[in-house]
Amino acid sequence: MKRITLAEYLYSETHTxxxxxxxxxxxxxxxxxxxxxxxxQVRWAGLENMLGETGAINVQGEEVKRLDEYSNxxxxxxxxxxxxIGSMISEEMGERLMIDGDPLAAEFLMTLDPLDGSSNIDVxxxxxSIFALFQRTGGFDNGEFxxxxxxxxxxxxxxxxxxxxxFVYWMQGFGVCVFNLDMPIGEYVLITNxxxxxxxxxxxxxxxxxxxxWAPDTQKVVDYLRAGREKSTGRYIGxxxxxxxxxxxxxxxxxxxxxxxxxxGKIRLxxxxxxxxxxxxxxxxxxSTGRQNILDIIPDTPHQRCPTILGSAKVIEEIEKIYAEFK
Length: 327
Ligand code: AHG
Ligand code: MN
Ligand code: MN
Hints:
This protein has helices at 6-14, 19-44, 66-82, 216-228, 240-250, 269-282, 313-325, and strands at residues 53-57, 63-65, 85-90, 97-98, 108-116, 127-135, 140-141, 144-145, 153-161, 165-171, 176-182, 187-192, 203-205, 233-234, 253-256, 286-288, 308-311. A hairpin with a 3-residue loop joins strand 9 (153-161) and strand 10. By secondary structure, it is α+β, with helices and mostly antiparallel strands.
C-alpha cells in the first residue's frame, strides 16, 4: 500500500490552487504538529504527573485540567511561532488572544477547543482537539472586532486521541479528509480524502440522564429516537469529539439539546458546534439546533452556546419535523 503523508498530500493538492489554499494548508500542518505533541502528552500523562486539575476555573466556570492547559499552551506556542493566525478564541481563554497585538495583521482567526472531553481525560477514554479557521474578511462592526459567521469558515476539524490518533479535517475546495497517525514514522497518513456520512442510522448519542430537565419537544425527540424508529442503538462516550467521530464513520446522531431552564445547552458554538457542524455538512450530513441550521447562527459572544444536533441527514430531518410540531 502506498503511504501518502499529510505534508505530501497537502503539497500535491494545494500548491496549484492559488495563494490562499497554500496558507490554509500551512495552518493544517500546524494543527497536525500540535496534535502529535498533545497525543504524546496524553499517552504519558499518568507517568509525568499531568492528570487531574490545575486548581483554576475557566471562563465557563469549569475546573481546568492540567491537560486542558497544556493543550491550550501548545496551540499558542506553535501558532505564535508560524505567524499564520492573527487571533485566537479558545475555551480556555476568557478573552480573544491577539497574536502580535494586531488582529488585522494576519489573515486568519482560529477558534479552539484545545481538549474536548474533560470528564474522560483522566480515565483513558478518547478525547480530542477541535478547531476552526475563519478568513479575516470582516473587520469591525460598531468599532468592535466582530465575531465570524459560519460562511467565513475556510477550514475545520479535529485531532482524536484514542487507541490511535486520527486527524479529520475539511478545507475549502476539498472533501473531508481522514488521516491516521503512523506512530513509528511520526506522520499522519491518508485514509480517505472524500469521507461521506451515512444518511441513515440507528445510532443516537445523548446524555439521557438529562431527560427530566428537557422541555417536552426534546423529550419527544429522544422518545422517538429510542423507541419510535425501526431500529435503535444508544452510544454515548461523553466526549463530543469521540461521539462525533464514531457517528461520522458509522452514521448516527449526536445531540446536546437545550434544557427547559437552560435553553442553549452546553456545547459552545464557535469552537465545538460550528466546526463539527461544518465538517459533517461537508460530509453530506446536517448540523441543526432542531429549529435552525447551526451554521446560520451569528455569534454575539465568543463563548456562546447552542443546542447541538449533528450527524446523519435523514435522521436530523425527522428530528426537525418533531421540533416543528411544537412551534
Ligand atoms: P469540554 O471537555 O471541552 O468542556 O467539553 C465537554 C462536553 C463534550 O465533550 C461532551 O459531549 C459533553 O461535554 C458531555 O457532557 P455531559 O457530561 O453533560 O454529558
Ligand atoms: Mn469541548
Ligand atoms: Mn475543552
